[in-house]
Write a structure and sequence with these properties.
mainly beta, 22-stranded antiparallel β-barrel, 47% strand
Length: 924
């Protein structure tokens, strides 16, 4: 009987609780959200009663239902990526149900959109409400740049992002290094739909921005598949893991029903560099609320060439350290005239030629009211061709004139394949916990083939039937990654009497695999006879193949656990704290943490925000395991001289002989402080200052060269003693420097109404400076002698401190009236510079430049728009190289006898000049 009464009491209590809850949410606002232009339903719109934790999301038909705890007057905010945020005031009586239908208009101002990256809270926040600065860039903003590759699109719309194409830099000609806040390409983490994206297989080992780093190939993704890009400009290693020292780039894929087509034809003013683009995206409906988005995109880019007139020796070497032998020079000129050799454009200095085909899918399928299946995946195939340095007949160690009578221009053909797949389940439990489990597999491979070349040592082996071989397979780099994640989150705000108190946590397990496959024997082998009278260069000229001793197939695993807490303590104060532990099987563990906050000084008018965090970047497998011998042209006595440079693996005999220690993780301490303001509804302002201190930064050393000096003799002894007799110089990866980066980001966006038209204005600026605060040598190579200069010489310092623009300021205006759209954008790229390895007289500084982009669009129909425009409309070029005195002693020449008109080591925006285009878009 006691049990009966107990059960009855429990039932009565439960009923009263349910009645109380039902009564407390008896008030309701419901309705439908549609597009103001097309009148179509808008799914996924966030509906929020501001100042409360009550919110809802529109379904596939655009409908929503928002329960409210109490009667009263509410401000209801409707926000969606790509649409203007709209707010409406509604008064709801006790137990009353109010219908509120709204139309949202397309938004062109993108820097105050709702933010997803940087927080695991379910609260809706714009860029002026977050604890850290985030740029939200819509697909239409990317397309409006007139660029067709994601890296170049971002370069002109994201203030702290920089990327410029490289030239005469081996594999880096084909994958653009990209940076945030002037740091390295491997100090920014890339996410795809919030999940870690794999790195590229290529490590940058030539003299370019990001030398010694491993980035992520953003151009492997079709731009047509992107809905938006979110750039988190703050240290986030504690939230997302290793690499997020400078920030995070989150790429979001389209999930819209319907078809979009984007086609472009363009060409440089100079008549080269033709670009063709065709991208198609179609969204299918799966069931009632699911979607399958499929994208296919093809891009074709012809090469550009801005080489100068060559003034040096061709058939006879008549110059030595600036001194000219006039007799040999006369003989050379006579031979040039006799054979009709042209000194014009015998180099290929500019964009590589690239053909690119990609396909991608993205799907979301609700399985029930509490669980959703999602997946995405794609494949990218890219074929490129780029040239190295011309080999002239007088360079007899690299050429056989019986094969190439007038010399030859060797070429690297790249075949890049990128692939990825993601599958996951997300949902919400009955107890209120949001949960997500997923698996992501991705990989990148880079195959090297050498064309129009030779192996000079093979060419001299007259008994070999293959001595005239001109094409070589030089090997393949591969990187694969499998990441599994499980995460949960729940907002305990209502239980604690707070506006929100979101707790998130999760586990991650990752497996990385790195491979180097050797090239064919003739691509790397030396066929010199011993003892030779003359040593001829071994391996395929421009890129000697990977040797069997370079081959590797290694795997490591990474375990991680994180906790993330974010709370609206009051309506004015928002706090965030996160910590993350990661353990690497090849070097150990690390803990990172972050504390951040935002306080509304004047509600909606002025807020202050800031953060303090630690970060880390584990040595990439590429940096630990890469080794190769390559032909690099090095400034020796003022002349670019080809050397066989060996990059030797960390932890092996030659590195140990030089005293190079085992690699360890880079660590950072980040400080940020900013102000945000939204004084009126159509104006947002953010100003954020930051300081990033990085210790144990990993670099690729300078080249330890053989020679007659004391240091050169020591190098010779070390190399020969370690069995590296066939290389002229050695380089290594090591933790050699500490750096400090300070900067300021400013973003102002507004959308004033002008008569019947609408004007969107955006001013975005980044100012930054990186300084090396400490250089550490090794026990064998202290930093206070000649070797210290080689370990990290003036040129390497220049790559870190000067090669990226110290400022970038963009002013964009977009005016729409009726069927016309006008877009004008001016971007000022700050000063850059280069440093010579040893001679300050050869240093260069290049002044700031302003690049202006213009395009005009006209809506032929509601669905089809045509646009014509010009990037770099005023045909602006960087400063030309100033040091051009080749025939003085010692030579003061950075142009390589006139071949380089513009610097290839520090570029602000490239040196191709103006580009015009016609673009056709259609949306059905």
């Amino acid at each position: 009987m006691r049990k009966f009464y107990t059960m009855k009491r429990l039932t009565l209590t439960a009923s009263l609780l349910l009645l109380t809850v039902a009564t407390s949410f008896a008030q309701r606002i419901s309705g439908r959200v549609t597009d103001a232009r097309t009148k179509e339903a808008l799914a996924g719109v966030t509906v929020l009663a501001t100042g409360t934790t009550q919110g809802a999301t529109t379904d596939g038909s655009g409908s929503y239902s928002l329960p409210l705890k109490a009667a009263g007057t509410y401000t209801i905010r409707f926000s969606a990526i790509g649409s203007e945020t709209r707010e409406s005031k509604v008064t709801v009586g006790a137990g009353e149900s109010v219908v509120l239908n709204v139309e949202l208009t397309e938004s062109n101002a993108s820097l105050s959109e709702v933010v997803v990256v940087g927080s695991r809270s379910t609260q809706v926040r714009t860029s002026v409400e977050t604890v850290a600065p985030v740029d939200v860039i819509q697909s239409r903003d990317l397309a409006a740049t007139g660029q067709v590759e994601p890296t170049q699109q971002l370069n002109f719309v994201a203030p702290s992002f920089n990327s410029s194409r490289q030239t005469v830099a081996d594999g880096t000609d084909h994958i653009d290094p990209a940076t945030i806040r002037g740091l390295g390409p491997d100090q920014v983490l890339v996410l795809l739909n919030g999940k870690r994206r794999h790195n590229q297989a290529l490590v940058n080992v030539n003299g370019t921005i990001g030398r010694g780093s491993v980035g992520t190939d953003l151009n492997a993704l079709p731009a047509t598949a992107l809905e938006r890009v979110e750039v988190l400009r703050d240290g986030a290693a504690s939230q997302y893991g290793s690499d997020a020292i400078a920030g995070v780039i989150n790429l979001r894929l389209k999930e819209k029903i319907g078809t979009s087509v984007n086609a472009q034809f363009g060409q440089q003013y100079a008549g080269d560099g033709r670009v063709l683009l065709l991208g198609v995206n179609h969204g299918f409906r799966l069931g009632k609320e699911g979607v399958l988005s499929v994208t296919v995109e093809g891009r074709s880019r012809e090469a550009t060439n801005r080489a100068g007139t060559y003034t040096g020796p061709v058939y006879f070497n008549w110059v030595s350290n600036g001194a000219v032998n006039q007799t040999l020079r006369a003989q050379d000129e006579a031979r040039i005239a006799q054979r009709g050799f042209s000194r014009e454009n015998n180099m290929q200095i500019g964009n590589s030629a690239v053909d690119n085909v990609a396909t991608f899918i993205n799907m979301r399928l609700p399985l029930s009211k509490t669980a959703t299946f999602y997946a995405n995946g794609g494949y990218n195939y890219r074929r490129g061709i780029a040239a190295g340095f011309y080999r002239y007949p007088f360079q007899n160690t690299q050429i056989d004139t019986t094969i190439y009578r007038n010399g030859y221009l060797p070429q690297i053909q790249s075949t890049i394949q990128d692939y990825s797949g993601t599958a996951g389940l997300s949902g919400k439990s009955e107890s209120g916990w949001n949960w997500d489990v997923s698996a992501v597999y991705g990989g990148n491979q880079f195959r090297f083939d050498v064309k129009n070349s030779l192996n000079a040592s093979l060419a001299r082996a007259t008994t070999r039937p293959d001595r005239t071989q001109s094409e070589f397979y030089a090997g393949t780099l591969r990187f694969n990654q499998l990441t599994t994640d499980a995460g949960v989150s729940r907002d305990f705000g209502s239980q604690l009497g707070l506006n929100s108190f979101n707790v998130a946590g999760g586990l991650s397990y990752r497996v990385d695999n790195y491979q180097i496959s050797a090239g064919e024997e003739t691509s790397w082998q030396s066929y010199n006879q011993a003892p030779p009278a003359t040593q001829f260069a071994a391996g395929a000229q421009v890129f000697p193949g990977f040797r069997p001793t370079n081959a590797v197939n290694a795997t490591r695993n990474v375990f991680a656990a994180y906790v993330d807490v974010e709370s609206d303590i009051t309506s004015r104060l928002l706090l965030n704290a996160a910590t993350r532990f990661e353990n690497y099987s090849d070097f150990g563990g690390n803990v990172a943490w972050k504390v951040a906050g935002r306080y509304k000084i004047v509600d909606e008018i002025l807020s202050i925000r800031g953060s303090i965090s630690t970060g880390f970047r584990a040595p990439s497998m590429h940096q630990r395991l890469f080794s190769a011998v390559s032909t690099q042209f090095v400034n020796v006595g003022g002349t670019l001289t080809p050397l066989q440079v060996g990059t030797f693996r960390n932890g092996e005999a030659i590195a140990n002989a030089f005293g190079i220690p085992q690699l360890k993780a880079e660590r950072s301490l980040n400080y940020a402080l900013g102000l945000t303001s939204r004084p009126v509804s159509n104006l947002s302002i953010t100003v954020d200052a930051y300081q990033i201190d990085i210790t144990d930064r990993i670099v690729l050393t300078g080249q330890f060269q053989r020679g007659t000096s004391t240091s050169g003799q020591v190098v010779t002894g070390i190399l020969d003693g370690a069995g590296a007799r066939d290389v002229n110089a050695a380089a290594f990866f090591t933790n050699a420097i500490n750096t400090r980066t300070r900067g300021l980001d400013v973003v102002v966006s507004t959308s004033p109404r002008i008569n019947t038209g609408k004007l969107d204005l955006t001013l975005a600026a980044n100012f930054n400076r990186t300084d090396i605060t400490e250089l550490r040598g090794t026990e064998r190579i202290p930093n206070d002698n000649t070797f210290g200069n080689v370990l990290f010489n003036r040129q390497q310092r220049g790559f870190i401190e000067l090669a990226n623009p110290r400022s970038k300021i963009t002013l964009g205006a977009n005016y729409t009236i009726n069927k016309l759209r006008f877009n004008v954008r001016a971007t000022r790229f700050g000063e850059v510079g280069v440093r010579d390895p040893s001679n300050a007289a050869l240093d260069e500084t290049y002044s700031p430049k302003i690049v202006t982009d213009i395009n005009i669009g006209y809506a032929l129909t509601k669905a089809i728009t045509i646009a014509v425009g010009a990037n770099n409309a005023l045909d602006v070029y960087p400063d030309k190289i100033k040091n051009t005195q080749a025939f003085v002693t010692p030579p003061l020449d950075n142009t390589s006898f006139g071949r380089f008109v513009y610097s290839r080591n520090a570029t602000q925006f490239g040196f191709n000049g103006g580009y015009y285009f016609v673009n056709l878009t259609a949306n059905f």
